[in-house]
Amino acid sequence: MRVSIIVLAFNEVESLKKTIAELQQLLLPERTQIILATSKSATSECLKVCQELEMEFANVIVNFQREPFVAAAVLESLALVKNDRVIYMSSDLETPPSVVPLMLAECEYFDWDIVVASRWVTGGSFEGYGRAKYLVSWSAQQICRVIYTTRLTEFTYGFRLYKTNLLRELYFREKKHPFFLESYIIPLRLGAKITEVPVNWKPRLEGKSVVNLVTLIQYLRPLIRVRFMQKRTLRKSL
User: Fold this and answer.
1) 238 Cβ partners below 8 Å, 6+ apart?
2) From CA 40, how far away is CA 31, in angstroms rounded?
3) Helix (H, G, I), strand (E, B) or coil at 2
4) What are the structural domain ranges in the chain?
5) What is the DSSP letter of 185?
6) What are the angstrom distances between the C-alpha of 176 and each of 6, 41, 82, 148, 192?
7) 129-148 core/surface letters (b: 16 or more CB in 10 A; e: else)
């Protein structure tokens, strides 16, 4: 199966190199397009590595986003995707490349619209997450499950495979990290066929997360808004 992978890169260096090296080993380069989504505001070290990887691998391209924030990084890169399936993930190894073949295997046998890497299903796990953070995340997933009446377990982790056309037809309003929730609950609300594969989460070893308490609170906005919006407003106008 051919796949395009959007890898978000902002302040990573060694983990970015390792992410791309592992993807190249796990997947056939001729069937894989890798888009390094970065910006001019990324660290100089990260930008240097992005450019080096683009020169080293024929299937790697760098996209410098024009608009700020993570939604633009994903959606502007989406315009460059040339395959029927697309994955977005980070370059800090919190989204392990080893899970990508599992995602693709699911699509080989079933026509899923979305395949989600889940920390909560059987076989998934956390390492070094912290008790308080774990409880907050677990509670958030349960709230999402109740509001959207689903047995799915993972809503906020930004590591997913989509049918490319599905992602392109949806209308997103969030600009920052709540986009990761919005880009999941919109297709869920529209009846997308979704499955989950387990992932073993480990904390990043370099770089710094830009997610804070204010960001987490902002997740409530799309959570409630999408649930009660008319379905026709969740897609782009024809």
Assistant:
1) none
2) 29
3) coil
4) 3-234
5) H
6) 16, 15, 25, 22, 23
7) eeeeeeeebeebbeebeeeb
At how many degrees (to 10) do helices 100-109 and 14-26 cross? Answer: 30
Distance of CA 132 to the CA centre of its chain: 24
CB 183 within 8 A of CB 163: no
Q: Are 188 and 150 in contact (CB under 8 A)?
A: yes
Cα 20–Cα 34–Cα 179 angle in degrees, nearest 5: 100
Q: Name the CATH topology of 3-234.
A: Spore Coat Polysaccharide Biosynthesis Protein SpsA; Chain A (3.90.550)
- CA pair distance 28, 59, nearest whole angstrom: 10
Element of type H or E holding 167: helix 164-169
> pLDDT per position in the chain (238 positions), as tens?
999 999 999 999 999 999 999 999 999 999 999 999 999 999 999 999 999 999 999 999 999 999 999 999 999 999 999 999 999 999 999 999 999 999 999 998 899 999 999 999 999 999 988 888 888 889 999 999 999 999 999 999 999 999 999 999 999 999 999 999 999 999 999 999 999 999 999 988 876 665 556 777 789 999 999 999 999 999 997 5
